[in-house]
Specification:
This protein has helices at 7-12, 17-28; strands at residues 39-45, 48-54, 63-68, 71-76, 97-102, 107-115, 118-125. With 151 residues, the chain is mostly beta strands. The protein folds into two domains: 1-32, no CATH class; 34-81 and 90-131, Immunoglobulin-like (Sandwich). A four-stranded antiparallel sheet has the order 1-2-7-6, with no helix packed on it. Strands 3-4-5 form a three-stranded antiparallel sheet, with no helix packed on it. It starts with 6 loop residues before the first helix and ends in a 26-residue tail after the last strand.
Amino acid sequence: MRNLDLTPLYRASVGFDRIADAMDRALTSDLAQTSYPPYNIEKTGDNAYRISIAVAGFAADDLSVEVRDGAVIVSARKAEEEGERKFLHRGIATRAFERKFTLADHVRVSGASHVDGMLHVDLVREIPEALKPRQIAIEKLDGRRVEKLDA
């Protein structure tokens, strides 16, 4: 496996620790990670996203969506069924799962819905006013030295 040296990133930038950590996590994660349940991540607007997870066989009460440590954690646990059911063929998996999606800075979960066997988690990026671009006024001086007076 190749190692990626992020030292130049740390030398030339300030405050990108989280991005570097996310890259490190992605590069060292187990490649044999399960693909259950299948999911989509889509961009639904300029600052809006949606995670859609196929949760066939799960009721809304069996599902949990939690935001913790900068990540959305979706988990499901099927409630115990009363009585014995005999399946001739069982193709719909209802095994418990937990999926974790790391969120970027200033992204928050705006809601979740369970529709037609799909769990939709809506996300929105809200950039704080202090981080939005702003125009700085340039003072025009007539060449004389300007001294500030202490009040």
